[in-house]
Amino acid sequence: MNYFVNEKGYYGDFGGAYIPEMLYPNVEELRQNYLKIINDESFKKEFHQLLKDYVGRPSPLYLAKRLSAKYNANIFLKREDLNHTGAHKINNTIGQILLAERLGKKRIIAETGAGQHGVATATVCALRGLECVVYMGEIDIERQAPNVARMKMLGAKVVPATSGSKTLKDATNEAMRDWVNNPVDTHYIIGSVVGPHPYPDMVAIFQSIISEETKKQLKEQTGSDQPDYVLACVGGGSNAMGMFYHFINDENVKLVAVEAAGQGVSSGHSAATTALGKEGVLHGSRSILMQTEDGQVVEPFSVSAGLDYPGIGPQHAHLFKTGRGKYVSITDDESLQAGLLCTQLEGIIPAIESAHALAYLEKMTFTGHENVVVCLSGRGDKDMDTYMKYFGL
Questions:
Q1: Is the peptide bond before 198 cis (omega within 30 degrees of 0)?
Q2: Domain 57-87+208-391 in the same topology as domain 20-50+89-203
Q3: Which residue in 51, 53, 60 sits closest to 80, CA to CA?
Q4: Which residue, 198, 294, 313, 319, has most beta carbons within 10 Å?
């Protein structure tokens, strides 16, 4: 079984590039050049130098002893929250800004939900002196105010998306429209493993540094580079794909992807794509998405702005359909409680997105010997308002 992209841009039944004709030259330019650029020695050298000296990689693999005692397993946290800007998103934006420069682009656009990708994009644009426009849902602008302030301070223009649910899906729609209108000088830094080919593959390659490091770090700490389980939260799924990437062909490593059940899978207020979705096309690729009988996108819901998305990336859809990955969901309440537990047991406040992955540990049974890696995709600074309201702090 091949779990990676084929030469036509598909992962099994999923992927491809379903795009308006106006975008064809942009996407085709990327498709023809991305592997050549990414595999160029000077690109690799600059990319890894920035990851080391600017982002602060490698991020630690931390054995969380008190969580381990609670769950009767060796719980390792891959500390993406310690990256510059506070999440995994910077790995991808560094890669894409270097790619955009090599393609001669002068203007960068992005979409963002939780704001972490927007901050990471604004950060690399400031670093390289490029114009930056970030589209963000009006609701997300309200609930992620600290990140909006950071983007503006970094020199980005933040444009509210006021249609639909006013969240991540709508921000993505607006960014796509901008790209159609500015095809020559603009590069669209998509923040997840979604969108038309080659984006899902390109973003996964940039994020694969997470599992590449984890394998080495786990070998140093346990003598084996293969854990029993790898857990990560999934909205579009970039941190999860980065966490899974180098384990995908290790069939004895169980991959667990945790989606947002919102107020409950069948509550009508959920973002549990694999539980509720059907195959279809969203934002330029064939995948699994939540949709009505006549194919209209169902509005997702989650307390976590970064998981509030009605689909998953095509590679995730393939891992789900083939059974290589186990796709589960966690409610708002369960994730918030897990975030508090991690904070009080380990002194680490996780992003609510990451807390979804931590929450699934409650539903697993261990014998005491398992090595379990959880991707701590981001830190909870941006979510303090939500945590404080929920717990009445």
A1: yes
A2: yes
A3: 60
A4: 313
Indicate whether this model's pTM tops 0.90.
yes
Does CATH number 3.40.50.1100 belong to domain 20-50+89-203?
yes
What are the domain boundaries of the chain?
20-50+89-203, 57-87+208-391
Please give the share of the chain, as a percent, with pLDDT higher than 70: 100
Which are the catalytic amino acids?
A: 89, 111, 377
pLDDT tens-place string over residues 257-314: 999 999 999 999 999 999 999 999 999 999 999 999 999 999 999 999 889 899 999 9
Contacts of residue 83, defined as CB under 8 A and 6 or more positions apart, other chains included, come to 55, 56, 57, 59, 90, 91
pLDDT at 169: 86
pLDDT at 166: 87
Average pLDDT, the chain: 96
Q: Which CATH number applies to 57-87+208-391? A: 3.40.50.1100
